[in-house]
């Protein structure tokens, strides 16, 4: 009895070495720093954005701040949503090929190439979008307008490739590597026993993936999509270059009349802004901050719910 | 293994030798310049700023002025925009400023209070704004202000519209939608362009003279380069931009009276001569109300005029001499030629250049 007690004491004493104290302190400090930084940003945005709420219509250029921010918020959400609509299925498909379908060597090469996409700076995507993609997709938009012009999305007139749909395609390409690489890791974690059991019960490969890989990876994939969404919401340079922004609210995806996004609008307007218009821009930044927060919380909630069920 | 270690050893050594010889060369060069700088009698730093339209020309002028006067002279030009330039000039932050529009009456009073006398305002940079287009197989188009307005506000949607065809007999116009490109950011180019449209075609362009594109029609592009690349990359587009940036794009000949005039520097410079001076300005003020409606032959009517602002007297002699020297160089035929070569601007006529030189020569210390 006494010996066990003393050995327990010894082990607690050995846990109190300086290395542990220092490491625990450093880790706590790191966590605390993040909180301070986040709080600092929030406080700055609120303080500097506040004058915009009470600013007179002449100073904002619109009747009030909500009328100013709403089209930008709409554009941000529309572009990001379209991008996710394209990127998420594609990324999950690529991740499955890498984790389950392709031979190991091919999978490695494909995975590496996809990861390379993440290393391309966004300004380069902007150049690619404006000089290469936009002229190339214009004939496609014109066909859409001819054949599906009765739908409000493809009303047109399609006279330029610099539309919100092109911007969404660029965003999708940019978000693709993030979603792919996380999904791939999650899919690879699926217990081999589950998969073999499914196959042993006579499941085809698709049924095996549907029964074992997807349920197991669900929350991870949702987190991956949300990270991609975060990138799409905050992307600035590529959008600022690609999009022909005129500040309208419309679901028409292929005309030259497009809503701008919050981040792109700040980047384009800030160099010439002075006085209260700076506060207006910062206020729009605050709105983006809050929206990004809400999206993240929503995602965590969905992911958490999935885990309990699984 | 041996080779790598050899390279590793040699590379820094070569770099070091290069660096040393470079520093030595620079040092020698500086000394030489310092000597010549003493000859012209000018030295010190001159700070100015303002209109970004002048940026390319200012770079050429600074280079020309500094090489003529040696390394003792430094001129800085901060392209903060016309409004910012005027503000800083009035508050005394800039010794001189560039501005795309002349001083408003209140600004004139404020500037006079800061300078101690009426401020000098001389035209320094005149540049035609070209209406550029990209249509396969068409190099030249004749358009009137009325038709240009209708194209940019969407009333005319197709290139083979009767209104365009009537002005361009014999030109094969495509049956395609017009893509009108405008500046998405606030811009002096937009201001001058819409000023022209609102004066000459007030019925077709009821949106007035504005810095920010006023209507929800057409494609928005950022900066002059953005407009040019949007038009270049996309057939059947039309846009407006500084003529020096038009490159290989087709340019519109604009109707003046009964003839159609292309945006050449000479045709653009002419408008300053036929336009009246702003009324009620001091003698040292050369501000001009551009007469866009002119019917004079050979005048191109869509022009950006940028001014230089300075005081008649400065606190210290060094600044006064620098401002005087720099501005004299800018409006001289040599300076105007440099700007025309480097920034594609239209040189001032001899008459205007002489008048400006005379005004500038009176700059002195208090």
From TrEMBL, chain A:
It comes from Nocardioides dubius. Keywords: Cell membrane, Membrane, Phosphate transport, Transmembrane, Transmembrane helix, Transport. InterPro entries: MetI-like, MetI-like_sf, Phosphate_PstC, Phosphate_Transport_Permease. PANTHER family: PHOSPHATE TRANSPORT SYSTEM PERMEASE PROTEIN PST, PHOSPHATE TRANSPORT SYSTEM PERMEASE PROTEIN PSTC. It is a multi-pass membrane protein. Pfam families: BPD_transp_1. It is found in: Cell membrane. The lineage of its organism: Bacteria, Bacillati, Actinomycetota, Actinomycetes, Propionibacteriales. Coiled coil: none annotated. This is Phosphate transport system permease protein. It comes from the Bacteria. The gene is pstC_1. The keyword tRNA processing does not apply.
Automatic annotation (TrEMBL), chain B:
This is Phosphate-binding protein. Belongs to the PstS family. The keyword rRNA processing does not apply. Keywords: Phosphate transport, Signal, Transport. Coiled coil: none annotated. NCBIfam families: 3a0107s03. It comes from the Bacteria. InterPro entries: ABC_phos-bd_PstS, PBP_domain, Phosphate-bind_PstS. Residues 34-53 are annotated as: Disordered. Residues 35-51 have a biased composition (Gly residues). Gene3D superfamilies: Periplasmic binding protein-like II. The keyword Signal applies. It comes from Nocardioides dubius. Pfam families: PBP_like_2. The gene is pstS_1.
């Amino acid at each position: 009895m006494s010996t066990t007690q003393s050995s327990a004491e010894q082990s607690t004493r050995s846990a109190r070495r300086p290395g542990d104290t220092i490491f625990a302190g450093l880790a706590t400090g790191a966590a605390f720093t993040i909180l301070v930084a986040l709080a600092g940003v929030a406080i700055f945005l609120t303080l500097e954005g506040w004058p915009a709420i009470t600013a007179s219509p002449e100073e904002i250029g619109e009747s009030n701040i909500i009328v100013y921010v709403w089209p930008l918020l709409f554009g941000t959400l529309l572009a990001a949503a379209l991008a996710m609509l394209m990127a998420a299925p594609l990324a999950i498909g690529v991740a499955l090929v890498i984790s389950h379908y392709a031979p190991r060597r091919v999978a490695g090469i494909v995975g590496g190439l996809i990861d390379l996409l993440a290393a391309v700076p966004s300004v380069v995507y902007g150049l690619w979008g404006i000089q290469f993609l936009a002229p190339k997709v214009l004939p496609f938009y014109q066909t859409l307008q001819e054949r599906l012009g009765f739908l409000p999305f493809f009303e047109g007139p399609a006279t330029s490739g610099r539309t919100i749909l092109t911007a969404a395609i660029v965003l999708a390409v940019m978000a693709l590597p993030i979603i792919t690489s996380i999904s791939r890791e999650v899919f690879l974690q699926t217990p081999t026993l589950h998969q073999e059991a499914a196959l042993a019960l006579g499941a085809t490969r698709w049924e095996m993936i549907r029964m074992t890989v997807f349920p197991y990876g669900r929350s991870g994939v949702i987190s991956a999509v949300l990270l991609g969404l975060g990138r799409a919401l905050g992307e600035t340079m590529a959008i600022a270059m690609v999009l022909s922004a005129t500040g309208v609210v419309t679901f028409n995806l292929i005309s030259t009349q497009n809503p701008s996004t919050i981040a792109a609008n700040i980047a384009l307007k800030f160099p010439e802004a002075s006085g209260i218009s700076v506060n207006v821009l910062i206020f729009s930044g605050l709105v983006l901050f809050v929206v990004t927060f809400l999206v993240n919380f929503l995602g965590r909630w969905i992911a958490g719910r999935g885990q309990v069920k699984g | 293994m041996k080779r790598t270690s050899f390279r590793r050893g040699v590379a820094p050594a070569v770099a070091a030798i290069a660096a040393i010889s470079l520093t030595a060369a620079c040092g020698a060069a500086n000394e030489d310049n310092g000597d010549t700088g003493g000859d012209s009698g000018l030295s010190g730093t001159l700070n100015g700023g303002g209109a970004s339209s002048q940026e390319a020309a200012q770079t050429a002028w600074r280079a020309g002025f500094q090489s003529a006067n040696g390394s003792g002279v430094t001129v800085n030009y901060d392209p903060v925009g016309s409004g910012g330039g005027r503000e800083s000039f009035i508050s005394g932050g800039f010794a001189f400023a560039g501005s795309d529009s002349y001083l408003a009456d209140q600004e004139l009073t404020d500037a006079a209070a800061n300078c101690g006398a009426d401020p000098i305002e001389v035209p320094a940079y005149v540049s035609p704004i070209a209406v550029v287009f990209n249509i396969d197989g068409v190099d030249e188009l004749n358009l009137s202000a009325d038709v240009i307005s209708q194209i940019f506000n969407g009333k005319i949607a197709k290139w083979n519209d009767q209104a365009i065809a009537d002005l361009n007999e014999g030109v094969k116009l495509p049956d395609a939608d017009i893509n009108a490109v405008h500046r998405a950011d606030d811009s002096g180019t937009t201001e001058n362009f819409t000023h022209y449209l609102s004066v000459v075609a007030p019925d077709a362009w009821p949106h007035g003279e504005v810095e920010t594109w006023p209507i929800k029609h057409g494609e928005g592009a950022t900066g002059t380069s953005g407009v040019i690349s949007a038009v270049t990359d996309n057939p059947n587009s039309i846009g407006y931009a500084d003529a020096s940036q038009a490159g290989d794009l087709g340019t519109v000949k604009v109707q003046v009276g009964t003839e159609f005039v292309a945006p050449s520097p000479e045709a653009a410079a002419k408008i300053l001569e036929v336009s009246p001076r702003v009324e009620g300005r001091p003698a040292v003020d050369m501000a001009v109300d551009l007469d866009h409606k002119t019917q004079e032959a050979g005048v191109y009517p869509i022009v950006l005029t940028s001014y230089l602002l300075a005081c008649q007297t400065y606190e210290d002699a060094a600044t006064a001499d620098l401002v005087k020297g720099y501005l004299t160089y800018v409006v001289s035929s040599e300076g105007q030629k440099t700007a025309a070569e480097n920034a594609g601007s239209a040189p001032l006529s001899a008459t205007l250049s002489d008048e400006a030189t005379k005004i500038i020569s009176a700059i002195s210390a208090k």
